[in-house]
Amino acid sequence: MTVTSTEVSLNEDQRDCYQELTNVAMGQAADRLARLLDVYVVLPIPKVNLIESSDLHMAIQDAETDSAMSAVCQGFIGSGIAGEALLLFNDTSFSDLAALMNYGGELDRYGELELLMDVSSLLIGACIQGIGEQLEIHFNQGHPVVLGQHCKVDDILKSGNHQWTKTLAIEIHYTIEHVNIDCDLLLLFTEDSVGKLNNKINYLLD
Amino acid sequence: MATNVLICDDSSFARKQMARAIPKEWEVDIHFAGDGVEGVQAIREGKGEVVFLDLTMPNLDGYGVLETIRKEDLPAMVIVVSGDIQPDAQDRVKKLGAMAFIKKPIDAEKAREVLTEYGILTGA
Amino acid sequence: MTDSNIEFGDIHWLMDILQNIDVGLVVLDRQYNIQLWNGFMESHSGLSPQKAKGENLFDLFSEIPKDWFMKKAEPVYQLKTRTFTIWEQRPYLFRFKNYRPITGRASVMYQNTSIIPLESINRSVDHICVIIYDVTDIAVSREDVMSANQTLSEFNRTDQLTELTSRGYWLKELDREFLRCQRSVLPSTLVMFDLDDFRSINGHHGHQAGDQVLRSVSEGLRQTLRQTDQICRYGGEVFAALLVDTDEDEAVIFAERVRKMIERMEIKYGQQSIRATASLGIARYQKSFTTAQDWLQAADKALYHAKESGRNKTTVFQPKAH
User: Fold this and answer.
1) At what angle do helices B87-95 and B62-71 cross, to 10 degrees?
2) Percentage of chain C lying above the pLDDT 90 cut
3) Could you give the residue ranges of the DSSP H alpha helices within chain C?
4) B100 close to B114: Cβ distance less than 8 angstroms
5) Are A143 and C79 within 8 A, CB to CB?
6) Does A121 lie at the interface with C, CB-CB under 8 angstroms?
7) Shortest alpha-carbon distance between residue C61 and chain A (Å)
8) C18 vs chain A: nearest CA distance in angstroms?
């Protein structure tokens, strides 16, 4: 039995379990993307960390923090577990993405927004649903919100209200074989959700 | 005689899930490996007559394990159990000699289905 | 029996809710024919459910780009995933009037939409539901904020009295130019100048007249400037100009033109006619400057020299011989 305390924590078994659940969910997401674009998506080992909200940018250290990014976020909530999914897209990825998606229009801000929305609908939706199915939670998704186009990572992450101090962060760095497309999908769970999530996980671990 | 079954996955949770999905009536000795290198070692020691193999692993991934099995002509029937369910991934492992592909998350029903289909589990 | 009565009641309520809920609900089949059309859609489109049902979405609403919408909807059928569109992509899916036709400031209703899969009993997706949210207020206030931010940043860049570049913004430009000069062989030159004996203009004619002098001089400067020249009111009656790609000789020509322009100027304030002159100091970028501040000081020194040697003059900074 784990002792419930106000301090949120994550032990090795729990971390391993989150990693595996994410692995399955992102596999489902990648499968959809692969079928849509007719490519092979390289799947990494997801990173699971309990971090201070002020260190959020550390969670995406894999992303080149200097290059310009565009980002979309989408909230989700179910069974008292709340969080946000952030999709950060390297701006250099857009031209290859446009080609793969047969996007005919001009690749201006609006064109990029279209691509960003299409990919984020797919990746975020599949990932959240995949995790939800394994934990038997039905997540409702809010509307996606554009956090910024052509910004630096730090600027994108700065614009939050950061009420919570800790967050469970799951980072998935997607790349696509043979083309220059990379993006980061971050799943962030609020501090007060972590306890409930851990209970669900402990049930699976028993 | 009990069949030597190897579960090769870097996640202890996934290994446990897999072990639970093995049909009760099947007489087996279950062995575990935490990555591809350990997996290949166990197969060489004869612990992997039937192997449940994950793809995404550190050190040596599932594709590497399949290649080694083929190169060294090791006696192992490999069933890939993976979260990477892209059509390409399924094609690649079949070409590398995997017998079957099971999507994660694994459960008893799926395992029984595949084991029966390939005649590994008989008389059930 | 009682149970099924309750169920019947439930469905009845649900239908009522669907009809009255203040979001648009449209159910489409695989061919994009309308299968459900709720009260919100009826009210805003003027099309009754009886008229809409069975009709093709794209036939009825030509404002919906078919290719675009299908790109969002096909994954919902094929992958059983939800998709979303937001007003930033397209302001609306259906061209409806703003809900507040009188006090609202937008003429159309901005919309976000969710497209969700509807599973049939055999788990296949043969229908999708399009949910339409009215986000006009959010969109309008976001656009307000953006245009306000635009104005604010322009506001901060401008000196309010003279509408020249503000000192803060100009100093940033100077820093940038200083860095560029360190890497470049092209010359750049700084001109600082102030109006001679401005205190006595204020004293004789009043501060408001003084302000008018500053405004008129600024207006004259604007007309003398080239596009690449950056000029600001540095403070009080002091002005500074940054002349990019300009050497000393060209700067002298510029400065003399400014000096003569001011000298000739007859500034009217009420019944009064005011005349002014200016002294100017010129300093070209020197490799020996370590900061932009050094550059400013050099121009200031030249200006001081012009003042000392009789005013209404242009002086060029002479770096000390090594």
Assistant:
1) 20
2) 48
3) 2-20, 39-45, 49-52, 57-60, 66-79, 136-157, 167-183, 198-205, 207-224, 248-264, 292-308
4) yes
5) no
6) yes
7) 21
8) 19
CB pairs under 8 A between A and B: 57
Element holding C93 (H helix, E strand)? none
Query: Across the interface, do C89 and A32 touch by the CB < 8 Å criterion?
Result: no
* Residue with token string 């699971």: A48
R_g (Cα) of chain C, nearest Å: 34
Determine if residue B59 is left, alpha or beta; phi over 0 gives left, psi from -120 to 50 gives alpha, anything else beta. left
Q: Do A24 and B83 touch (CB under 8 A)?
A: yes
Angle among Cα C31, C35, C39 to the nearest 5 degrees reads 140
Chain C residues lying within 8 Å of A35, measured CB to CB: 79
For each of the domains in chain A, give its residue range(s) and CATH number, in order of start.
5-205 (3.40.1550.10)
Q: CB B83 to CB A23 under 8 A?
A: yes
The H or E element that residue A59 is part of is helix A56-59
Architecture of domain B3-106: 3-Layer(aba) Sandwich (3.40)
Judge if pTM exceeds 0.80: no
- Which tens digits make up the pLDDT trace of C150-200? 666 666 778 888 888 888 888 888 988 898 888 888 889 999 999 998 888
- Under 8 Å between Cβ of C315 and C303: yes
Chains that touch C (3 or more CB pairs under 8 A): A
| Candidate from A192-201, B75-84, C53-62 with smallest mean pLDDT | A192-201
Listed in sequence order, the residues at least 6 apart from C72 whose beta carbon sits closer than 8 Å to its beta carbon are A118, A121, C83, C85, C115
- Please state the ipTM of this predicted complex: 0.85
Structure token digits, residue C286: 């020197």
CA distances from C317 to B116, C233, C284 (A): 95, 21, 8
pLDDT at residue A2 in the model: 45
Chains A and B are in contact, defined as 3 or more C-beta pairs closer than 8 angstroms: yes
Contacts of C83 in chain A (CB under 8 A): 118, 121-122, 125
A17: chain B residues, CB-CB within 8 Å: 11, 13
| pLDDT tens column, C237-268 | 999 999 988 999 999 999 999 999 999 999 88
